[in-house]
Amino acid sequence: MTSSLPKLRRLPVLVATALLAACASTGGLQPASEPRPIDDHTVARSLSGAPLSPAAFPAQDWWRSLGDPQLDALVAEALQGSPSLAAADARVRKAQAQAGLANAARKPTVSATGQYVGAQLPSGLAGDEIGGQLMHNAVLMLNFDVPLDVWGGKRADYLAALGQAHAGEIEAQAARLSLAANVARSYVALAQAFDSLEVANREQARSERLLGLSRQRVKAGIDSQLSMRNAEVSIATAKAQAEAAQQQIDGLRNAIAALLGASPDRGLAIERPRLLQAPAPGVPSVLPSELLGHRPDVVAARWRVEAAAQGIKSAKAKFKPSIDLSALVGLAATGFSGLFDNDALLGFGGPAISLPIFDGGQLRQNLASHDADYDLAVAGYDQTVVDGLHQVVDAVQAIRALDAQSASLEQARAAAASAYDLAARRYRAGLANQLDVLAVQKPLLQIEQQLAGVRAQRYAAAIDLDQALGGGLQPAPPTDSVSSLSPSSATSP
Question: Which of 27, 28, 111, 433 is the most buried (most CB within 10 A)?
Fold first, then answer.
């Protein structure tokens, strides 16, 4: 009998060894990618010739550089009352609440319960001693629970939720930047529509004067009806252009009112824009590395990578034993009168350990899902960086090309204006007729129409550059460098 005791003592060890051997394993599961270092991207050749400056990032109120007080007021109104921003803020609050829930799960809990039970058992079942009598039972209890985060899984859950909350906060900033940029772009388009309307009205007035002269010449028999018909065509075309420009004006006013979160009537109060200047392009000399600290979408994508890395840590911790400390202290007695007697004390407690053994592959699939989430977050981050750099280069190159077009059109406009002035002087001197003056005026109006379009594109390109450079925002990125968010370092258990 005594010879079997050592074997019995070894039995718990053997059982524990068997259980551990049967535990679910993380072997072979890991993310397939890691974030690309931002300085691996090169933009020097694409931005060659652009003015570089360490302080070239835009100001937070970058739209003020366009020099129109009405635009300043419209952007402020949009940032104050747009429903889209209210929705973004609500999403931020929800993400913060989720982070609070994850943090609360890490902390000890205490709960109190009280219960009164009245019971009567039949004598045939319980006997004469307690059967047929109404029994009163009262219980008061305090429940204590202390989750021990031995493997850091609960902390990882909290950090993952916190990372998502940070990403939501920064995406709300991105929504504000996008809204301000959309208001400014619509305002620039409204300015172009007003310019088009003005040129169309001037062309209509020119064509009507030409028609009047043509009728006089036809009536005098010194001209055919061809010039008169051509003038009528020009009038109809100019009217159509004016009507199209007015339709654009109405639509853009309505669109701006929608961006403000206001009713359509608000748009009717928007006056003709008075944009003063399109700012010269300024490109930071610290691109691309500093782009991470200024573009809210890049920073938000980086936070999501960090959150996904913490999600992997949490998933790996679930493969380990979980330990909780719980205790119950209370009073229990038959009836309320004996509830506070010395012998009414009730209590028990201690550690509870649970270990996953066979779960049908749920833990491995959960970890595989988090690995995929990490890869998705990395791909989203890398793509956001690429898109951001391309948007900067596109805006700079557009500004460069539009400045060249504007310079050429200004030269053409100066030549056309000079020709118009010369024809007007010849007319006043009696050396030319009014038809010559009106004929020379037409190319001048056409060039002014083209110049208005290029000017509007130049304003829009300046807005694109300000938005591509982050709109003056400096959201806080994760403290770890992006290079540290690799599968080998960010996903260790």
Answer: 433
> In angstroms, rounded to a whole number, what is the distance separating the alpha carbons of residues 426 and 437?
9
Spatial contact of 369 and 25, defined as CB atoms under 8 Å apart: no
Residue 280, Cβ neighbours under 10 Å: how many? 10
Percentage of the chain with pLDDT > 70? Answer: 83
Q: Beta strand 52-53 with 283-284: parallel, antiparallel or unpaired?
A: parallel
pLDDT at residue 472 in the model? 82
- Tens of pLDDT, residue by residue over 270-316, are 999 988 766 666 667 666 667 667 889 999 999 999 999 999 999 99
Architecture of domain 107-148+323-355: Single Sheet (2.20)
How many angstroms separate the CA atoms of 138 and 124, rounded?
A: 25
Decide: helix, strand or coil at residue 126. Answer: helix
Q: What confidence tier does 14 reach under pLDDT thresholds 50, 70, 90?
A: very low
Strands (E), 197-316: 283-284
Structure tokens at 205: 């007035």
The residues, any chain, with a CB within 8 Å of residue 32's CB and separated by 6 or more, are 371, 375, 487
Q: Coil, strand or helix: which one is 173?
A: helix
Kindly report the CATH number that applies to the domain delimited by 28-106+150-319+363-490.
Answer: 1.20.1600.10
Residue 184 has pLDDT above 80, yes or no: yes
Where do the structural domains in the chain lie, given as residue ranges? 28-106+150-319+363-490, 107-148+323-355
In the chain, the amino acid numbered 232 is E
pLDDT of residue 352: 83
pLDDT exceeds 70 at position 488: no
The answer to whether 175 touches 227, Cβ cutoff 8 Å, is: no
Q: How many CB atoms lie within 10 A of CB 336?
A: 11
